[in-house]
Amino acid sequence: MLTPVTLRGSIVCLEPMTIDHVNELCVAASEDRSTYTYTYVPNGHEDAKRYIDIALTDFLKGRSLPFVVRHIETGRIVGTTRFLDLEFFSWPPPWPPGVANGVSPTDLTSPTVAEIGSTWYTASFQRTGVNTECKLLMLSHAFDSWHAIRVTLKTDARNTRSRSAILRLGATFEGIRRAHTPAIDGSIRDTAYYSILAEEWPEVRAHLQKKLQTR
């Protein structure tokens, strides 16, 4: 099981999700739901409670590390995000040539690859510095603390807004996985895949830091 961690920046604080967040999360999700066309966002108190219960079950099974996003200036919870689809690579030593992430093949306490996903923000905090800093904090944790070699980001291929936001982070488009999974509108969605590799992280980090400084 991963150890819960709090990630704090200057705009947001990512707190480990708990059931105590249900009321604040419900409020955050209710502001303006018209922007959630391609993203599952809980609707109402019972749905928010179920959303948290599922996230915490996945955490206890070692599948994810979920956060709520708290805006520091206002103290409000303004969304959620999480690490998921965690993989712990292990194979006989030596570690394959060219992969220098500083982790022993027998050290399986930190993920080797991870995805950042299940991300949504309340309407009034979209297109602000919130997402940029959230991604900077999470990518820093993945690459600098876990020494991951890859972070994945993906979205519904129809979600042009999300796809543009991922590209603005500095991620690389990998392609479309067709007929990948059920979509929230009842259709079968194609999924657009993006990634950031460890060797790309210094450049991406500088890019994100610059974006925050110019806001």
What does this structure look like?
Helices cover 30% and strands 29% of the residues. It is α+β, with helices and mostly antiparallel strands and 215 residues long. An 8-stranded mixed sheet has the order 1-2-3-4-5-6-8-7, sandwiched between helices. Strand 1 (7-8) and strand 2 form a beta hairpin. Residues 102-106 have low confidence and may be disordered.
Task: Please describe the structure with a list of short key phrases separated by commas or semicolons.
alpha+beta, single chain, globular, 29% strand, 5 helices, 215 residues, eight-stranded mixed β-sheet
Class from secondary-structure proportions = alpha+beta
Helix count from the secondary structure assignment: 5
Major β-sheet strand ordering? 1-2-3-4-5-6-8-7
Q: What is the H/E order?
A: EEHHEEEHEHEEH
Instruction: Please state roughly what percent of the residues sit in beta strands, choosing from under 5%, 5-15%, 15-25%, 25-35%, 35-45% or over 45%.
Output: 25-35%
Overview in brief:
The protein is of the alpha+beta class and 215 residues long.
Topology summary:
Elements: E1 7-8, E2 12-16, H1 22-29, H2 45-60, E3 64-71, E4 77-87, E5 113-121, H3 129-145, E6 150-156, H4 160-169, E7 172-182, E8 188-197, H5 201-213
Parallel strand pairs: 5-6
Antiparallel strand pairs: 1-2, 2-3, 3-4, 4-5, 6-8, 7-8
